[in-house]
Every structure is written in structure tokens, then in C-alpha cells.
Write a structure and sequence with these properties.
The protein has helices at about 5, 10-15, 30-45, 65-70, 75-85, 95-100, 110-125, 140-155, 170-175, 205-215, 240-250, 260-265, 275-290, 300, 315-340, 345-355, 365-375, 400-415, 425-435, 450-460, 465-470, 490-495; strands at about 50-55, 90-95, 105, 110, 130-135, 160, 190-195, 225, 255-260, 270-275, 380-385, 390-395, 480, 500-505. It has about 525 residues and is α/β, with parallel strands linked by helices. Among the domains are: about 45-225, dip2346 domain like (dip2346 fold like), CATH 3.10.630.10; about 365-505, 3-Layer(aba) Sandwich (Cytidine Deaminase, domain 2). It is globular and about 75 Å long.
């Protein structure tokens, strides 16, 4: 398989000697938008102007893709939908089981039902047409019923789909009035119907197939396609970008594989993942039963992903992906230490670090944090600025290490050196007193959020503070390492600043409660 990896050997050697900075890019967003929209449009035409597109991954804020492919616009998917908005409508699926269990999006801290509402509001604000909601796997769950009524009272179209009888093997029952026919049909009016959800296992595929069954009954020969960003089908199996996908889904047990159906049909290598490959024979039988003929010869055929052809610097992509693989390992270590992750996930991430050769991917910033902590005897965070300079911050007196490193970084970026006048104790100490006396905080030190609020206040009368605050956007994409496990609140703030933080699996203190 021809890949960009072979074309950029010299670039790879050169890149390995340099530091990855947040102003470097290896991805062409304009090219991707053009190719992706053209590919989807071709697929719509192939199916007589009616395509159900299973839309996976994050629609907004795809930060994983932005980390492994520097320059990738994390909101490129929503821009793609905007580009095609005149021909597209959107159906949202959510599992009744996820509503009942109050399943939470770990990255946002939102329940799946609230995440659906947030996504729909954001989409509609951008002029996109969300036409209906489908609550899947419904069997009378009270919370799901309540959620449906809440939407209906706001004038939304809500449909309830139950588990498909006969699935997965009894195709004659699945594709019948007892199976897909039992669920209500959602009337749609546009050629592209995007079926999406707040997370995995929400019933997107079943919804697409159910809709196709009803369309064929009405004489509409609709089609199905799938849009997933990773793994990248036209990159090598062991390319770091694809290994990074395995690291991101280690808890799900996803494993990239060469698509055997694609190779048998075309004699070409293509990459897919184990769950799609395993379910393909079942899906193929169902699609053939609905459509009356074989349309796709492989799971890769079903995809419309053009991301691989929009990578402009393979060497940089490999380096960034290795860093992400190592970050996922540190995350797995900390999750396991907190009791929030399994030993199997940790071991899987460790194996992927070794497989990708990513052990030293963040060596510079990790070494700086550990060395500074060792010599100072204080917990420490080290951060690498866009120019490659390492800045450190230690937990001392009233400020946490992460707050200290952010302040030090902003001072440096603003050219203020060691000037500490940008924020003074007369501003910080009342906040300390408030947290201790009113909020009864056990921490005793100010967080990143506390310090940035204080710095924002100082900008009103302090020109140096204002100058430092103006540099905050330059922290986006910087790598940082902490010598202890950050509190969830501090970690979230650093993520919002765009700082890619890793932590040693060590607790800061013996307190059981993390504030």
C-alpha cells in the first residue's frame, strides 16, 4: 500500500531531532473539506439521492484528532455539515439504557441526554437542520420516557425504537415487519440524512438500517455509508496515527486490523478495526436482504473517510501521534491509581507505547518536571513553550504547581521575565481566605482557575497583567507534565486552555476526597 510514510523518510529523520510546537501543522483542512464533501456527494448520487450516513466520533471539539494531526481543525466535522447543510438533515440517537443509567461523558462531565441537548442547540445555532430524535433500545425505561416527553413538550419529533427481533443472525426476521418494520419510520425530506449520537453504542447503525427498510417499502432505494475519522484506512496498520486510535479506545478493546474482505475483493491493503470487521458479514447479509443485491464488498467500502489524503507532513503526524500514545498511557496509569480504570486497559496502553516506540516522545518536558521536583523537594509542573523553552512551576505557599507554571509561562511569553508584579498577594490572599473560611477548602493553595480569575481582575489597572493575559492563547497545544495526579478541576482548566497535560501516577497527599 502506497503511503506518505515512504515519501517523507527524510522529513521523519529531521523531525525526530526537533521539538513539536503548537504552530506546526501537518494537515490541510481546506483540502479535506473539499475531498470529504465530494466523496459524500458521490455516495448520495450512487444511491438515487438518498443516503443514510452513520456519523461517528465527536462532531464538535475533536481534540484527539487535533493532537495526532497538528493543524487539524477540531470542529472540521461541523464545518463539513455546514458546507452541505442545504442537502443534509440530522437525526439524533440516544440509547434508553444510557439515559436510565445516567451515563456521563468523561471529557465534559455531562450526561448523555444533556449532551444531546447541548449538541443540538449548537448545531441549530449554526443553521443546521436537526429533524428528529430517536430513543433506541427502548423497553419502557422511566427516565427515557421522561426525556422523550420533555422533548415533545418543546415541539420536537421523538420516536422510540425497541431492540430488533432476530438480531443478529435471523435475517429474514430482522428484515421484516417483526424486525425493522416494528419500529416507526421517521419521515425525512433531504438527500443526506446524518445519523449521529452523543457516544458509542447508541443505535446509529440500527437506525440507519431500519430507515432503509422503510424507504425500500416505499420504493425509495436509499443507501448506507459510514463516516469515522479513525483508524485511517489508507495509512499502514502500524502507523502511529492508527496506533493512537487503539490507545484512545484501549478500554473498549478496539484493535486495528487489515480488512480481509477488502483484500480478498480488490487485492489491496486497507485498515479497519476489529468490531467493524467482525460485524461485516452480518451487516452485509442485512443490506443485501434490504436492497436485493450486494452493494459493498468490504467494511472499508462503506466508509467515506478522506482524512489520509489530507495529511501534508507524515513525519510530523507520526511524532504527534507518538506523543498522544504516551499521554494515553499516563492517563491509564492515573485512572488505574484512582480506581477508575482496569489493569487490562493499563497493560494495553503500555504495550502500545512499546509497539509505537513512543517511550521517549515527551522526554524533554517529563525530565524537566522530575528534575525540578527532585532538586526543589516540591511538587512540580513543567511546560514547553512554542519556542521549545521549558518553564516550571512548583507548589509553594499559596499557589498550586499548575497555577504557578501557567503564570510563569504567561510572564515569559509577555517578555516580563521574573517580574512578579503582574499579580500580588493583596489580590491572592483574600481568595485564599474565602476558600478556607467560606468554602471550607482543604487544599490551602489556589488553583489555576483561581489565579487566572485574579490575573483577569488585575488587568483593569495593571498593564503588565494585561500584557501577560493577552498571551494566554499561545498556551494552546503546549505539552506539560506534572509530578502528581492533578485534581479533576485543575485538569479540566488546563484542558480548556489547550495544554496537553500528563501526570505521574502519584497522589499529592493522603486526602481521599479530590476537590
Amino acid at each position: 500500500m502506497k503511503t506518505k510514510a515512504k515519501e517523507s523518510k527524510n522529513k521523519t529523520e529531521k523531525s525526530s531531532e526537533s521539538t513539536l510546537h503548537n504552530n506546526q501543522a501537518c494537515f490541510d483542512n481546506a483540502l479535506y473539506l473539499k475531498k470529504q464533501s465530494e466523496n459524500i456527494s458521490k455516495r448520495i448520487k450512487k444511491f438515487n439521492n438518498k443516503l443514510y450516513l452513520e456519523f461517528g466520533g465527536k462532531i464538535f471539539d475533536d481534540l484527539h484528532a487535533a493532537r495526532v494531526l497538528p493543524g487539524f481543525d477540531p470542529n472540521i466535522k461541523i464545518k463539513l455539515l455546514q458546507k452541505m447543510k442545504d442537502k443534509a438533515e440530522i437525526i439524533f440517537c440516544i440509547s434508553a439504557n444510557d439515559i436510565e443509567k445516567n451515563k456521563i461523558r468523561a471529557d465534559l462531565g455531562l450526561s448523555y441526554d444533556n449532551e444531546v441537548l447541548r449538541l443540538v442547540d449548537n448545531m441549530r445555532a449554526l443553521g443546521l437542520y436537526v429533524s428528529a430524535f430517536i430513543i433506541t433500545l427502548f423497553k419502557g425505561q422511566p427516565s427515557a420516557t421522561k426525556f422523550g416527553k420533555k422533548l415533545e413538550q418543546r415541539g420536537e419529533r421523538v420516536f422510540f425504537h425497541s431492540y430488533t427481533k432476530g438480531y443478529p443472525n435471523e435475517v429474514d426476521i430482522i428484515v421484516s415487519e417483526e424486525g425493522y418494520g416494528k419500529n416507526p419510520f421517521v419521515e425525512t425530506t433531504r438527500p443526506l440524512v446524518v445519523v449521529t449520537a452523543p457516544g458509542p453504542s447508541s443505535g446509529k447503525l440500527a437506525t440507519c438500517l431500519c430507515q432503509m427498510y422503510h424507504e425500500y417499502k416505499r420504493g425509495i432505494k436509499a443507501g448506507y455509508a459510514k463516516f469515522e475519522t479513525f483508524p485511517v484506512w489508507d495509512l499502514p496498520l502500524k502507523h502511529p496515527v492508527n496506533i493512537a486510535y487503539e490507545a484512545a479506545t484501549a478500554d473498549l478493546g478496539d484493535v486495528n486490523e487489515i480488512d480481509p474482505f477488502h483484500f480478498n475483493a480488490y487485492g489491496k491493503l486497507a485498515i479497519n478495526y476489529n468490531r467493524d470487521i467482525a460485524v461485516y458479514p452480518i451487516l452485509k447479509n442485512i443490506l443485501t436482504k434490504i436492497q436485493g443485491k450486494e452493494i459493498y464488498k468490504s467494511p472499508t467500502d462503506m466508509g467515506v473517510n478522506m482524512i489520509g489524503s489530507s495529511i501534508t507532513d507524515d513525519a510530523l503526524a507520526q511524532k504527534a501521534a507518538k506523543q498522544e500514545i504516551l499521554r494515553r498511557y499516563f492517563r491509564a496509569e492515573c485512572d488505574f491509581k484512582r480506581g477508575q480504570g482496569t489493569y487490562q486497559t493499563l497493560e494495553r496502553n503500555k504495550a502500545l507505547v512499546n509497539e509505537a516506540g513512543a517511550k521517549d516522545a515527551l522526554a524533554k518536558v517529563i525530565k524537566a518536571a522530575k528534575d525540578t521536583s527532585r532538586t526543589s523537594k516540591f511538587p512540580c509542573v513543567a511546560l514547553e513553550l512554542p519556542n521549545g523553552k521549558i518553564i516550571t512551576g512548583k507548589t509553594k505557599k499559596i499557589v498550586s504547581a499548575s497555577a504557578a507554571v501557567v503564570l510563569n509561562a504567561l510572564r515569559t511569553l509577555a517578555g516580563l521575565g521574573d517580574d512578579f508584579d503582574i499579580i500580588t498577594d493583596d489580590i491572592l490572599l483574600p481568595i485564599v481566605a474565602y476558600r478556607a473560611n467560606i468554602l471550607k477548602s482543604q487544599s490551602g493553595v489556589l488553583s489555576v482557575d483561581d489565579v487566572l480569575v485574579a490575573l483577569s481582575i488585575c488587568t483593569a489597572k495593571n498593564a503588565k497583567a494585561k500584557k501577560a493575559m493577552e498571551e494566554i492563547g499561545k498556551l494552546q497545544g503546549c505539552s506539560a507534565h506534572c509530578t502528581y495526579i492533578l485534581s479533576p478541576a485543575e485538569e479540566q482548566t488546563l484542558k480548556k486552555l489547550g495544554i496537553n497535560i500528563t501526570c505521574e501516577p502519584v497522589f499529592l497527599n493522603s486526602n481521599l476526597f479530590e476537590g
